[in-house]
Structure formats: C-alpha cells, structure tokens
Design brief:
CATH class of one domain: Alpha Beta
Shape: globular
Strand order of the largest sheet: 2-1-10-9-11-12-13-14-15
Helix content: 25-40%
CATH architecture of one domain: 3-Layer(aba) Sandwich
CATH superfamily of one domain: ANL, N-terminal domain
C-alpha cells in the first residue's frame, strides 16, 4: 500500500502542483527535497515539524513519511509548556521546517534543528513502510490535562482518504483550496495528504481570507465555520466560488444561517462532515447525495456508528433521541502514546471508540451532532437539553451574529441554560429568551443571556465553552 500515490508519477506534474502561501512547487521538486529530509531522519524515533503554512513544512512532513518515521506536527503558536510537553512526550529527536524559525524554536527546547532547503534534492527512493507503521502522532487539545498523542497508522490515513475520495468524488482533476492550519487533521491530513494521494492540485492560501479563497479558482474548498461565515458576509467573494464543485465544512457545526447564505450566494449547499483526531473523518454528506442543514450525513465507507445511553443501552435512530456516539472502522487510531489508562477509557469492551460527542441519528441514517457530552448536553430541571438546538434558535434572530450555550451550575435546576450572544443591533436578553421559547420548548429557553463582543475559539474555530464557564 503506497500512501502518497501521486508522488510516484502518473498524475502529471505541473510546476505549480502545490502552491502554498504564494510559493509554487512541482511534485517532482517536492519529492526530491523530501528525499534529503528522509535520508537525514531515517531511523529516528519521531520527527517533529514546525507546522507553518510553508513549502518547507510540507516537505518535512513528506520526508518523515518517506522514511517511515512518525511525524509530530508542532503548532507554531504553541506556548513553551505545550511545546515542551509535545516534544518530550513524543520522543522527537529532530525539529524540521523553515530555516530561521525552526532554528530558533529548536534552540529554545534543546532539540536538533533540521532546516529544510528546497534547493537540495535527492534521487534516492525509499521502500514503502509497512501499512501498520505510524504515520503521525497528533496531539489532542488536552481538555482534561496535557495533550495526548494519538497514533495514526499509514493504513488508517489511506483508508480515510480513500473513503472521502468516494464520498466527495475527489479526483486528480480537482484543485483543492484551503487556508487551514497544518497541525490538525483537517488542514494536514485531508488538506495536504489528500492532494498527494488523489493527485489533485493544491492551493494553500496561507490565511483563509475571503479574498484569497475567491482568487484561487478552485473546484474543491475546505473551511471551518468561521471561514465560511466570513465568506458568506463578503458577497463578492462568495459569488466568486460559484464555479467550484464542492464546498466542505468541518471541525465545528456550521450554523444553518451560514449554510443557507452560502447556498444562495454560491449556488452550492455545503457538504458537512464529522470526525476527530482519533478517528479521522467518519461521517459526511456526499457529493451525490442530500445535504441537510445541521446534519453531517452518513458514515463513510467502512465506518460503523451507534448511539448508546450513559449505561450502554441502545438508543433508537428516530432523529430525536440523544445518545453517546460511538464509532469503529478502518480509520481508527492505534491508541494514545504511552497512555494505557486513556486507551482503556477510550474503547468499549466490544471495540467501539467512545467519541464523547452526543448525537441523534434519523431513521434514514443521517447524523446530527449535538455537541460534547461534557458541555453540550445540559441537564436542567430533569430535562436533557442540547446546546446546539438552542444556539440554532438564537442564530435565527435577526439581531444575533453568533451564540454559544452552556449549562451553568444552579442550585434549583442542577444546570441553568446560559447563552453568550454576539449581537448585531439593539436587543435584550429577555427578548432573546422569549424568542427561543417561541420556537422550542419553554424549558429550553436561556435563563440568562450575556451579550459579548466575541466568543473564545481555538485555531479550528471551535468555541471554547469551558472558558465561558470559567469566566
């Protein structure tokens, strides 16, 4: 099984097969430069890569994969404690990437720097590593402690990319455009390796601005809801995407108003998908299928899903009943690096991965993700309330730009529904609470509404709800 099939020829090789933050490179040149990296890192325990949106970062990743050395993407904005933990925990012996940046970072952490030089080239060819070898160790967000390193095999990555190629009709004829970070599954595995496996052209815009997306003239676009919201607010940029084939949104729920506005301005209903670092992408709407606002669609080829109660009993697929989502399939990770306790907690006795997310599944198999069980299912006055449902209702108000809903401790109700709202015009909390009560059950209305200028988010656009609760 060859992971990076497009690097082996047969797909054509334009001088700008990859364009990253304005710099173009052919696959042949990429392969040659990556070969020099592979020769230097062969036999290493792990290779850390300073994951900036650059040709050097991509070359370093490919070099590690060619050598069969697990690649550890390092967020370029990681603080010293996080960075030190990732490097120490992964056992990375080298840090590769852009010359000055990688030298400075490596010096701070006492690790050997490997600056990548695109002018260097190697004609050496490396035997394809075994499919079960680790391709990546990707570090999770660490919501309950230090980040954990999820081990993803070459087999898992290949299986997922092939399943997505099937779901999205992804071919060498596409031009993939995105500006997502290269230290996450979305930007790196899908957004770079997907192009190097499918043979399509890749344009990484550096920053995911509406203007950059509009100018790229792609057929396949990846974005997170924050990106799509900004594009939907820029009518000229949105209309420029009308020539695309597919707009894909992930990493967080896409607000229905943004879905609808994109459909109006671009002529395309976005494809939404669901996944995690540990599982890669497991559920998606299809290029040739129905796309329902608020739904992430059906399991991709080879993947199975199920809903269970907190005590493990089956939850009916009726489109209404909430359950803990569990998945299994060929794209699952091989466990957390050096963390047997976390591995034991991650899987059920019969081999299903506990995602920690709560969902509903309709009778025809469409999945709707309610959110994280820990923060997005609110237990208030004996009711279970999905935060996402309340957020969607709030976003329907003409004076609401965005909203995040949490359950705050309450001596009477157990948890009270609290909404943090970015307003667009004069509106009061009482008005918004009444607005929700008119659309949903009265018990789902916010007991308190906090008007804010912005919501705290991570690099992928997910709202950091625990920070809201802490505030």
């Amino acid at each position: 099984m060859n992971l990076l099939t497009a690097l082996q020829g047969g797909h054509g090789d334009a001088a700008d097969a990859l364009r990253i933050d304005g710099r173009a490179v052919s696959r042949e040149r990429l392969l040659g430069a990556a070969g020099t990296v592979a020769a230097r890192v062969a036999g290493a325990k792990a290779l850390a890569v300073l994951a900036r949106p650059s040709v050097e970062s991509v070359t370093a990743v490919v070099g590690g994969l060619l050598a069969g050395v697990p690649v550890v993407p390092l967020p370029p904005d990681a603080g010293p404690l996080e960075r030190s933990h990732i490097l120490r925990d992964s056992g990375a012996e080298l840090l590769a990437g852009e010359g000055p940046a990688v030298k400075d970072t490596a010096s701070e952490d006492g690790i050997e720097a490997l600056p990548v030089d695109l002018g260097e080239t190697s004609a050496d060819r490396f035997p394809e590593p075994a499919p079960e070898r680790a391709a990546f160790v990707l570090y999770t967000s660490g919501t309950t402690g230090p980040p954990k390193g999820a081990i993803l095999s070459r087999r898992a990555v290949a299986a997922d990319l092939d399943a997505l190629a099937d779901a999205w009709a992804w071919t060498p004829e596409d031009t993939l455009v995105h500006g997502l970070p290269l230290f996450h599954v979305h930007g790196l595995v899908l957004g770079v390796l997907g192009a190097l496996r499918s043979g399509c052209r890749l344009v990484h815009t550096g920053r995911p601005t509406p203007a950059a997306y509009a100018e790229a003239a792609g057929t396949l676009y990846f974005g997170v809801p924050t990106v799509w919201s900004r594009i939907a607010a820029d009518e000229a940029a949105a209309r420029a995407l009308s020539g695309a084939r597919l707009l894909v949104s992930g990493s967080a729920p896409l607000p229905v108003p943004v879905f609808d506005k994109l459909a109006t301005l671009t002529g395309h209903q976005p494809v939404e998908r669901y996944g995690m670092t540990e599982t890669l992408i497991t559920v998606s709407t299809r290029a040739d299928g129905e796309r329902r606002p608020g739904s992430v669609g059906l399991p991709v080829a080879g993947t199975e899903t199920r809903l269970v109660t907190e005590d493990g009993r089956p939850v009916p697929a009726d489109g209404e009943s909430l359950g803990d989502l569990q998945v299994r399939g060929p794209s699952m990770f091989d466990g957390y690096l050096g963390n047997p306790a976390a591995n034991a907690d991650a899987f059920t006795a019969d081999g299903w991965f506990r995602t920690g997310d709560v969902a509903t599944i309709s009778p025809d198999g469409f999945h709707r993700i309610v959110g994280r069980g820990s923060v997005d299912v609110i237990k208030s006055g004996g009711f279970k309330i999905g935060a996402g449902e309340v957020e969607a209702a709030l976003r329907d108000h003409p004076a609401v730009v965005d909203a995040a809903v949490v359950g705050a401790p309450d001596t009477d109700l157990g948890q009270a529904v609290v909404a943090f709202v970015i307003p667009d015009g004069p509106v009061t909390g009482d008005e918004l609470a009444a607005f929700v009560a008119q659309r949903l059950s009265v018990h789902k209305r916010p007991r308190r509404v906090v008007l804010v200028e912005e919501l705290p988010r991570n690099a992928m656009g997910k709202v950091l709800k625990k920070r809201l609760l802490e505030g």
